[in-house]
Amino acid sequence: MVIGILGAGQLARMLALAGKPLGLKFIFLDPTPIACAADNGKHLIGDYTDPKLLTQLAEEADIITYEFENVPVEIIDFLSEKTPVYPPAKALSVGQDRITEKNFLQDLGIATAPFKAVSSLEDLQQAMPEIGYPAILKTRRLGYDGKGQVVLKSENDLSNAWQAVKNAPCVIEGFVPFEREVSIIASRSVSGEIAYYPLSENSHDKGILRLAKNTRNDPLQQKAEAYIDTLLKALDYVGTLALELFVVGDTIIANEFAPRVHNSGHWTIEGSETSQFENHLRAITDMPLGSTHSIGYSAMQNFIGGVPASEKLLALAHVHLHLYDKTARKGRKIAHATARTDSAENFADLIKQLSELAAASDDS
Amino acid sequence: MVIGILGAGQLARMLALAGKPLGLKFIFLDPTPIACAADNGKHLIGDYTDPKLLTQLAEEADIITYEFENVPVEIIDFLSEKTPVYPPAKALSVGQDRITEKNFLQDLGIATAPFKAVSSLEDLQQAMPEIGYPAILKTRRLGYDGKGQVVLKSENDLSNAWQAVKNAPCVIEGFVPFEREVSIIASRSVSGEIAYYPLSENSHDKGILRLAKNTRNDPLQQKAEAYIDTLLKALDYVGTLALELFVVGDTIIANEFAPRVHNSGHWTIEGSETSQFENHLRAITDMPLGSTHSIGYSAMQNFIGGVPASEKLLALAHVHLHLYDKTARKGRKIAHATARTDSAENFADLIKQLSELAAASDDS
C-alpha cells in the first residue's frame, strides 16, 4: 500500500520510518528539492497547489495524509475526489482559523482562554478592558512555533503590537496563568477505534517547544482524554491528533489542536509500545491500533538551530538520537533526542545532561 | 555520512531504518532490480563483482559494510583500497570455509563438535567410525539456512548423502546432543569498545530459524561472552557478530559464526535499549556503542513463505510487525514479528498465539 504525504519534512520522515516495517511505501509532495523525508520513497518536487502533481499524487497513493496544518482545504477537496485523505478536511478548516477553532472547542464544552476577534487597532483597544492584561495578540491564520504572536503587557503595547501583526485579522486572548503546559495525543482509526497517549508535559522557550516529558500517571489524564475524545468524534477524525492544554490547578484549558503527529509526542518512538507515527498510519489504513502503554520513563529534548556532536549524545546511555538530515539554520528544529529509562532514579539527571547539551548548541 | 552496503535485502533494510535517525545515508549494491532495502537510499543494480559499480560504491560511500557472509574476499580487498570496509576481510575468509572456521575456533579454545574434512565418498567412509552416528555432512562453503546439509543416520545414508552434496568439499560433523540452541550477538567498534547482547534461545525447523527468544539472565551468558570476546579480538572485528552455540548441560559448543547482524537478534529492535542494527552502525562509524539493556521480555517469530494478514498480527497487543516488502515464495523469509511485554505473565501465551499464526501461513 502506498501512502502519499503532503510535505517531506521531519514528521513525514518519521512517519515513513515507522511505516516501512508495516509494509507501507511512501510518496511525498514537497516543493523543497532536498527535503529530509525524500529518500524514503518517491519525491514529487513542486508546489502544493500544482494540479498536475496533486493528480499524480492521488493516482499513485492509496491513501493521502499531510504533515502540516496549513494545507489549503481546497487541495484536500481536490485530492479527495480520487483518493481518501486523512485527517478529514474539517479538522483543517476548523483548526486553520483561531476564532473558528476556539468557538468549536467551546461549543463542545472544552474550556479555552477568554478571546475576541479583532480586525483593527480600534477593535483591539475596545476588547482590552474585557480581556485584561497580560494578553496575547495572535494572527487568526498561519501561526506556528510562536510566529505571528505578540504579548501585550499594558495599553502602551497596543499600537506597536498591531503594527507587528501587519493589520492581519487577529484574535486577542487573555493570558492563562498556567502552572503547566501539557498536551494529549490520541489516534482514531477509520473504524472509530481510539488510542490515547499519556499526557506530555511541555516546556517552551521563545515560543518553541524544548522539552516534552511523558507524565505517565497524570492526575488530569482522564479529563484530557474526555476533551480529546469529544473533539475526535466531533471532527469525525481519522489519524493522530494533538490537543495543547494549559493546566491551572485541577482545571485544563485548551490552547489549540494540531491535526497531525506532534512534536510533543516524539518520545512515543521509544517511550510507548506503539509510537504516534505508527498509530497515525494504522489509523488511516484502518488497521487495529497499537498499545500506547508507556515503556519506562521518557522525555524528548529538541535541538534548535544547532545540535551537539553525535559522539557526545550517543555517549549518554539511554539517549536515542534523531537527526532530521536538515541543514542547521537559526531557529530551525533540526533534531531531537529521547531519554528513556526503566527507573525514575537517574531520569532527572539524564534530562538535565541532555538539556545542558542542547543549550550549548542552541541557536534559536 | 554515507554507508555503502553490499546487498539490499532485509538486513540492509533494517540497517538503513536504524541508521537514518543517526543521520546516516545509504547506498546499496545488489543485482536484484527490486530489492527490499532499495527505497531507503541509492541502489546500484548490478553484480557484486562488477568493478565499475564497486568503484562507484567505494567513491560514494564513506564506510562500506555487507549483509551476507558469502561476499568474495577479493571484493573486500578491492573496495578497501579506496574506502574502509567493516567487518574486516579476515572474518569472511575464516567464516567462509567450515574447516578453517572450526580450526580457528578450536585454536582460540572455543569448543566445537568433532569434525573432519572430507573430499570423497572414501574420505567420508573412513571418517565415520571416528565421528559416529548420527552426523551431519555439510559443504565447506556457501551453506545457509540448512542448505548444503545432509543428516547421516547410518552407513546406509553415506552414498546418497555424497551424491546430494554433489562431490563438493565437505566437512563431516558429529551430532551434538544439544538441549538448547542459543546465540550470542555482540558489537565491537573501531575503537575496540564491545557491547554484548543477552543470549537468544533459538528454535529451528527444516534448518530455518523460527523463534528466537531473549533469555535475559541465562546461566551461560558469561561463558558465551567469554567466547565471543575472544573471537572478536582474534578477528580484530568491527561491527556486529553472531556466534551460534549448542548447549549441553552447562557446556556450550560453537556451531558457527556470522560476520553480520543476525536473524536471532531481530528482537533487539524492540527488546533492547539499542538494536543490533544500530550498534552495528555505531560500531563501524566509531561512535560510542548503545546500551544492550533488555526492555522487558521479547521474542521474535519468523514468517517463512507466507505471512498472516496484518490485521491479525496487529490485533495482538505487544506484537510488532516487520514486513520486508518481499514477494512470498516457498521457503523464503519474508517477515518477522516481535512480541515484547513488560511482565513475564502472559508472555508464553503471546508467543504461542504468534507461533500458531505463523504455522497457519507457513510455506517452507
The overall number of domains of chain A is 3
Oligomer: homodimer
Share of residues in strands of chain A = 25-35%
Per CATH, the superfamily of the largest domain in chain A is: ATP-grasp fold, B domain
Secondary structural class of chain A: alpha+beta
Poorly predicted tracts of residues of chain A: none
- Largest sheet geometry of chain A: 9 strands, antiparallel
Give the fraction of residues assigned to helices of chain A: 25-40%
Number of E strands of chain A = 17
CATH architecture title of the largest domain in chain A: 2-Layer Sandwich
CATH class of the largest domain in chain A: Alpha Beta
SS element count, helices of chain A: 12
Gyration radius of chain A, rounded? 20 Å
Largest interface: A-B, 32 and 32 residues
Shape label of chain A: globular
Mean pLDDT of chain A: 96
Distance between termini of chain A? 39 Å
Please provide the ordered H/E string of secondary-structure elements of chain A. Answer: EHEEHEHHHEHEEHEEEEEHEEHHEHEEH
What are the main properties of this structure?
homodimer, alpha+beta, Rossmann fold, D-amino Acid Aminotransferase, Chain A, domain 1, 3 domains, nine-stranded antiparallel beta sheet, 12 helices, 30% helix, globular
